[in-house]
Every structure is written in C-alpha cells, then in structure tokens.
Write a structure and sequence with these properties.
This protein has 145 residues and is an all-alpha fold. The chain folds into 2 domains: 4-54, no CATH class; 63-144. 83% of the residues lie in helices and 0% in strands. The protein is built from 6 helices and no strands. The protein has helices at 4-15, 21-33, 35-54, 63-69, 71-101, 107-144. Helix 1 (4-15) packs parallel to helix 3, helix 2 (21-33) crosses helix 3 (35-54) and helix 5 runs antiparallel to helix 6. The structure holds zinc ion. The site of zinc ion has 7 residues, from helix 1 and helix 3. Zinc ion binds next to helix 1 and helix 3.
C-alpha cells in the first residue's frame, strides 16, 4: 500500500499527541484497515512506553509507587527510624551510667544487664548498616525495572 509511508509519519505524531483532529481521524481510519501499520503502531507504542518509563517516568503511570519510593519519603522514614534509635541509645546510656553510679546492686546482675545493653547496641548498628545499604541500592533498582 503506497500511502503507508505517509501514515508512518502520522504514527509518530499520534504517539506524541501532535496531530490535528483530521490527521488523527485519518490515521485511526488507516490503522483499522491496514494490519501491517497496526502492527507497526503497536511496536512503536511499546517502544515509546519503554522510553518514557526510562526517562520521564510519567506520573500518571504509578503515582502511588512513586510517592512511596520518592527520596523525600525515604528520607522521612530514615529520619523516623534514626530518631527512635537515638532515643533508645540515650536511654540505654543513661541506664548504664546510673548503674555504674549505683554501688548497692551486686556486680553479677550488672554484668548481665550490661551484656544485654551491649548486645542490643550491636544489633542496632547492624540494622542501621542494613538500612544504609538498602538506601544506596534502591535508586538503581528503580532504573532496572
Ligand atoms: Zn498501512
């Protein structure tokens, strides 16, 4: 079909939403009749979608996912986490300090409590480290999809 070449130009315009109503009608009319162009248009549509997902990531596609994954949101979650951990550390250090001053309590329970506190802090550091690693990896994961 000799008119197909002309419609190929219109397909690009259709993808970018740059057509006049007349052109739009013409290309739609042709697409319903010409299987070859329809196939080609589907292919262009697919490529166009992939391109947009890589570059602009259209907001209407996945508004909720983007909001949840946005750096601001991640920052907020991390801040909340660190604030809670900071509170724990302050309380634990205060407990240790008070325990050191207190000479009435026998030594063995003190050692036990100190071991619990130190163990908790080690776990805390592990959790923080894990959060940091996840934080660093996340942005790249998004691009891979
Ligand atoms: Zn055609």
């Amino acid at each position: 079909m000799c008119s197909c070449e002309r419609f190929r130009q219109l397909m690009m315009g259709l993808l970018d939403d740059e057509l006049t109503p007349e052109e739009r009608t013409a290309i739609n009319d042709h697409l319903t009749r010409c299987a070859q162009c329809r196939e080609e248009y589907q292919e262009l549509l697919k490529q166009d979608k992939e391109l947009k997902m890589l570059s602009i990531r259209e907001p209407e596609d996945e508004v909720l996912a983007r909001l949840w994954k946005s750096p601001y949101n991640r920052f907020t979650r991390l801040t909340g986490l660190f604030t809670i951990m900071f509170g724990w550390v302050v309380l634990l250090l205060y407990g240790l300090y008070e325990m050191g001053r207190d000479t009435a309590t026998p030594v063995i329970p003190k050692i036990g409590i100190a071991a619990l506190v130190i163990g908790f802090m080690v776990l805390l550091v592990l959790v923080i480290r894990e959060r940091f690693i996840t934080y660093k990896i996340d942005p790249y994961r998004e691009v891979e999809r």
